[in-house]
Amino acid sequence: MVNEFQGKTALVTGASRGIGAAAAAALARAGCARVILHFGSSREGAEKAAEQVRAAGAEAVLIGGDLATETGIRNFVAALGDRARSIDFLVNNAGSLIQRGKLADMSYDLYNRVMDLNAKSVWFITQAVAPSMAARGCGVVVNVSSIAARHGGGLGATVYAASKAAVAAMTKGMAKELAPSGVRVNAISPGTVDNDFHAKFSTREILDGVVKATPQGRLSTNEDMAGVIVFLCSDAACNIIGQTIEINGGAFMV
Length: 254
Ligand SMILES: NC(=O)c1ccc[n+]([C@@H]2O[C@H](COP(=O)([O-])OP(=O)(O)OC[C@H]3O[C@@H](n4cnc5c(N)ncnc54)[C@H](OP(=O)(O)O)[C@@H]3O)[C@@H](O)[C@H]2O)c1
Known about the structure:
Layout: E1 9-12, H1 18-30, E2 34-39, H2 43-55, E3 59-64, H3 70-80, E4 89-92, H4 108-136, E5 139-144, H5 148-151, H6 158-178, E6 183-190, H7 196-201, H8 204-212, H9 222-233, E7 244-247
Parallel strand pairs: 1-2, 1-4, 2-3, 4-5, 5-6, 6-7
Helix pairs in contact: 1-2, 1-9, 3-4, 4-6
């Protein structure tokens, strides 16, 4: 049976672990022929994720690149080269808090790195990929925002939260610009995902508090996020445009 993923190419940024690795594998299982896995510092992680992609029968292509600087973003777009013209599904997932920084101690350098990684990379990678989608009259972009965009983030995560609010706003603007050409742009907004991100930036005490305050009584998983990314890429989501979907077990309801 032919489905909308067959023969298609996906690019997932930040696919070396966490949500991105799960999304790359899920897109391969959905039927994509090729998944381009971007990684930052962890080629080893990307190789592991690529094994899952290949196990699902898809070709895996690995491209590295630091996206926390403008030069890094430009280099990644250059490394993508002509492959940018063959992408059907773009998942702008790479992102990080990088380091907590409150108002008093946030440096210009950290501010720029957080904004470049989480917001500027989304804009300029989409700028590289979307024109050929628009020329073909189809394609899907899924950005990754955050629950932090809604509530301002925890202590020391304000600039990260602002960068993710920028992603939600860009999602709407890009969606308006690209929908007439047949390209759909949406975002997911993860709540608290039980993965390396929080192993690095939260404590078990904080995470236990989130579980208690979550109607579903558990943290979210990488697979919870990947499932909605695949759904947004699918034809079942053909009328969903410019939305940011909150996925958090009911911890935050819009
Ligand atoms: N975990 C959560 O609870 C949560 C909640 C809301 C939103 N999010 C968002 O979800 C997305 C995926 O995060 P995750 O939870 O899967 O976290 P993760 O496990 O920390 O993975 C982050 C991914 O982004 C890549 N990355 C980080 N810094 C980079 C840089 N400077 N240049 C290029 N790539 C970089 C990492 O690549 P390397 O490891 O190869 O460097 C990795 O593949 C992020 O945008 C994050 O902000 C996560």
